[in-house]
Request: fold
Amino acid sequence: MNIGFIGLGIMGKPMSKNLIKAGYSLTVFDIYAPSVEDVVAAGAKAASSVKELAASSDLVITMLPNSPQVKAIVLGEGGVLEGAHAGMTLIDMSSISPIASKEVAAALKEKGVDMLDAPVSGGEPKAVDGTLSIMVGGDAAVFEKFRDLLLKMGSSAVLCGDIGAGNTTKLANQIVVALNIAAVAEAFTLGNKAGVDPQLIYNAIRGGLAGSTVMDAKGPMMIEHNFKPGFKIDLHHKDLANALDTARELDAYLPLTSQAFEILKVLRNEGMGQNDHSGILAYYEKLSHTTLGE
Ligand code: NAD
Reply:
């Protein structure tokens, strides 16, 4: 099976390398030449265009920033759709709007091309280890056909429903993570204002009901003021924008997500978009005139 892989960023680069390690034949494309050279050095071929990549592939995987890039690469001039042939499959692993996933899938279907939306959670370390959690939307038979391949990049792959269900699940994940980070930041800020060391608050509550994977991953980063990404505020802002767009379309009400979105927007406007999302703490510290540890 010939695989085309488009988008060799923080995530796509290690994911594509794991497929090469598993013995698959890969042709790759990215607008950033050094990333292409890096994956070619690991054993891939470079495509000169997206259309050429699609024409020679049985499966195309995309790992791009957001809906506009996926639509442009798949549906735009010289894109995947132009080079695609009936029987080909597209697996989009980017985190995009489920509405966009459905639009792209419908256009591909007219040409006999199947699609799965399969966003991931776990970040760069799990992309490198091949232990991502993969949330999938699409036809069950197509999912079964590619389940083993997905498990070369992840430790779990769960079919959540029809096309778009993978991205809906990813949005649910991003809502829980953002609100959990904001809750931890809010709680630590109160403790600090009251003169109780946030490190001791963390030690005391992490084993109880308030404890969480988010608290364990992001609490220590907040206490150390280490906002090196990780997962950037810019990307989380994008995900919550997609959640709110989707909610608007469905007439669903997301009051807490709206607030978290506004917090992320402020931090971006203050030049902190490239910080890790644990940097949500900076918003609380500024409003309450306090700095953890001081
Ligand atoms: P990234 O910005 O590092 O990588 C995106 C890649 O796409 C870059 O190499 C860029 O050059 C390429 N690209 C952009 N436009 C292109 C185009 N028109 N043609 C070809 N290549 C193009 O982003 P990332 O961190 O790898 O994230 C990719 C997706 O995975 C995003 O949707 C993100 O939300 C999601 N995600 C990221 C993480 C994380 O921790 N970084 C975790 C889970 C999910």
